[in-house]
């Protein structure tokens, strides 16, 4: 006796051929991924050419790590957009996390770091603007307007929390051992002291959770109508 398994409604919907609008956004995702990768490669190349590239420092920045995550998410998202009418729920959760990281990168840079005196090597300005402003803006806008976004449950907030917690723990331990912190607001020896560091950590963590919750809420808009 044999049994026949049938795909679920969600799986069937996901695997329908992509629409022209999805393909357009697939191209936009590829362009954004290539631009972000070009910015990172340019920064590394400049530092190598000037003898200023320290890998363990460069790759310790949240901006760089979250930008690499965005490159992967955009690349995978482009492939999905070319093939399917809508994205799988798991990918959408990871994409939501990338949006949260990019948003906090943009806000922290423009509120806390822009205008501070540069320390060490100073390279071209455009890669920093791409990674801190234009890629985050693209990810935010694309999350709102791109077709094919899956509906996320509220528990997916925790998907966005894991990476920042690991990064923060590693950064603080490394800072204590090596006396180097990638961002001045994490330095406990600053005039405001450890209390200021704790306040920044709590505020930024709450901001990431808030952005993730907002992104999930956007994914759920019209959910009842779609279910019907």
UniProtKB/TrEMBL annotation:
Bilayer-crossing regions: 62-82, 94-112, 124-145, 157-177, 197-218
Keywords: Membrane, Transmembrane, Transmembrane helix
Domain of life: Bacteria
Keyword Transmembrane: yes
InterPro entries: Pr6Pr-like
NCBIfam families: Pr6Pr (NF038065)
Protein name, per record: FAR-17a/AIG1-like protein
